[in-house]
Amino acid sequence: MTFIRSNVKLDKVSSQCSAVIIGVKMWFHLFPVFIILIFQTNQIQAGYGSGQGIEVSTVGSYSGSTQHNISGWPYFEYNVPRNVTAAVGQTAFLHCRVEQLGDKAVSWIRKRDLHILTAGILTYTSDQRFQVIRPDKSENWTLQIKFPQERDSGIYECQVNTEPKMSLSYRLNVVEARARISGPDDVYVKTGSLLTLTCLMSQGPHDLGTVAWYHGSHPVLTSPLQEGNDVASVPRVAVDTEWSDALTSRLKITHARPSDSGNYSCVPTVAESASVNVHVINGEHPAAMQHGNTAAGSPTSRIILVAVVFLLGQLR
To answer: Is 247 exposed, middle or buried (0-12, 13-18, 19+ CB in 10 A)?
Structure first.
């Protein structure tokens, strides 16, 4: 009986050993499969965590060229102006172009208060100066700001509702464009001489329209011919406007007359005007031409000087 029990125990041990050996062999066969599965899982997680195929932009993150995306995700066209300057009252435009938008939506956000201005083609602000312009089936989503003021300056974001969110920032600068007339506020010229007034506008965008000149409240009318001469020549009154680094307009009046005296204003289309006072005088007052209304050699100045000396003597 003891012998039989020993054989039973040996059979059990032998069966357990066989099972262990089979398990070890199966593990060696399956081990490469587990390694491949683990490697693929890590790759998938890494790709998902990095936001592969999604481009998120902030101010200054991208310098220029289009970033092509082969994954099918939306992407921004970066070859657009993102630092925009507009004059007060002149309509401003911020251009955002989104390729491969698909079923996503484009919104415009004002950064300073995170106010949603537009979503899709709808306006989400009570300020009707803001509107999105998007031609049918176009990739362009342009934010239009009518009659901008200096308070509208700041950062605006074009956003796409991907996950994570995509955004491209724009800086809007709204400036008060002003005209400036070179020289003093009071201009003195002799009768019969040449009067030239130069109006300059160097601030603001280079779309300041045209310039009008006014003599008092009346527009300055140019002359086709020089008066008193039968031969066509330089007109007595002429206006020359040109662009260089600034908008420059010159009003030229030849053979100035006393009737040409008065206030002259340079009035740009979208900028603050500037003005000067012109005095056309006879040649017997050269001191007034050099020193304006406070000519040191004039009789009035001598009388004032004598009076001051007299008062000082009385105080002693």
So the answer is: buried
Q: How many CB atoms lie within 10 A of CB 145?
A: 22
* Residue partners of 212: CB distance under 8 A and separation at least 6: 219, 220, 267, 268
8 A C-beta contact, residue 140 and residue 97: yes
Q: How confident is the model at residue 223 (pLDDT cuts 50, 70, 90)?
A: confident
* Residue 1 vs residues 14, 177, 268: alpha-carbon distances, Å: 20, 117, 124
Most distant pair of Cα atoms in the chain: their distance: 157
Residues paired with residue 160 on neighbouring β-strands, in sequence order: 106, 166
Condensed to tens digits (0 to 9), the pLDDT of residues 20-75 reads 555 655 555 555 544 444 434 343 333 333 333 333 444 433 334 445 555 678 99
C-alpha span between 133 and 127 (Å, rounded): 16
Collapsing DSSP to helix, strand or coil, 139 comes out as coil
219 prior amide bond cis, ω within 30: no
| SS3 state at 97 | strand
Q: Tell me, what DSSP letter sits at residue 222?
A: P
Instruction: State how far the alpha carbon of 218 is from the alpha carbons of 184, 189, 259, 313, in Å.
Output: 22, 21, 14, 52
Beta bridge partners of 86: 174
Residue 312 has pLDDT above 90, yes or no: no
Q: Could you tell me the pTM of the whole model?
A: 0.51
* Contacts with 195 (C-beta within 8 Å, 6 or more apart), sequence order: 187, 189, 251, 252, 253, 254, 256, 260, 278, 280
